[in-house]
Amino acid sequence: MPRGRYSLHDPHDHTPLADEHFHCAPGPSGWRYVSQLTAPSGDHLGSVDLALDELGRPIRLELHAAGWQVRGAALDGVTWVRTDPTGAHATEGNVRAHAFTGASPAFLVATARLLRLTPSSAATRVRLVALTDPVLAPRTLDQSWALVKRETHATDNGPLTVDAYQVTALDTGEQHAVHLAGDVVLDAPGIELEDLGSPPSVFP
Q1: How confident is the model at residue 158, as a pLDDT?
Q2: Cis peptide before 134 (omega within 30 of 0)
Q3: How does DSSP assign 16-68, residue by residue?
Q4: What is the pLDDT of residue 131?
Q5: Which one of 27, 103, 108, 165 is separated from 50 by 20 to 30 angstroms, measured CA to CA?
């Protein structure tokens, strides 16, 4: 069960935004990721709880940030309920999309798991509902993912396979690289892996 800490920063000016303390593991039904977020000051910022089924679809998502809460799942596309900090108002949403995304590294692992690309695969288009900080506002976006390189590195804990993806935002054409090892993000815009207590899990 990998556990560790990511640091999150603004990808443009590198302003520190948060530390995300996480643990994750594959299980009999798929994969689960749980994390707590803290501000650079040490204040609690929110949490992430994401569970995927064996096909990589989100069967349960619960996000907390700035008093807002979103609960969602893959249902007729993706469906969610967003609740305001007072708890007095809840709005439902549904979009014909494949999955959710957001600031957490969990969503990069989840999208890669959903697409299951190989280095010989063509770039694949995916529609996602982004839950954007600071108030988890939903926004539908389209991306293209391509697995451009897969390399295996020798480590003290055995071979480590690293997948390099090219992700393209289809509305702007902006491209960025994402490097994953199993269920851990090694490098992505705005994300740095600062600490890892055990090796990444290998998906079957």
Answers
A1: 83
A2: yes
A3: EEEEEEEEEEEETTEEEEEEEEE-TTS-EEEEEEEEEETTS-EEEEEEEETTE
A4: 97
A5: 165
- List of the chain residues with pLDDT < 50: none
Tokens 């994300």 correspond to 191
How many other C-beta atoms lie within 10 A of the C-beta of residue 92? 9
pLDDT digits (tens, 9 = 90+) for 81-102: 999 999 889 999 999 999 999 9
Q: Do 166 and 146 touch, CB atoms closer than 8 A?
A: yes
Residue 34 CB-density burial (10 A; 0-12 exposed, 13-18 middle, 19+ buried):
middle
**In this structure, which amino acid lies at residue 13?**
D
Nearest C-alpha neighbor of 178 from the set 100, 99, 103, 105: 105
Report d(CA 104, CA 97) in Å as an integer: 19
Contacts of 60 by beta carbon, 8 Å cutoff, 6+ apart: 49, 50, 51, 71, 73
> What does the alpha-carbon distance between residue 137 and residue 143 come to, in Å, rounded to a whole number?
18
Which pLDDT does position 93 carry in this prediction?
97
Residue 43 vs residues 17, 109, 117, 147: alpha-carbon distances, Å: 11, 26, 38, 37
Element (H, E) at 113: helix 106-115
Other beta carbons within 10 Å of 31: 21
DSSP classification of residue 202: P
For residues 64 and 118, give the distance between their C-alpha atoms in angstroms, rounded to a whole number: 34
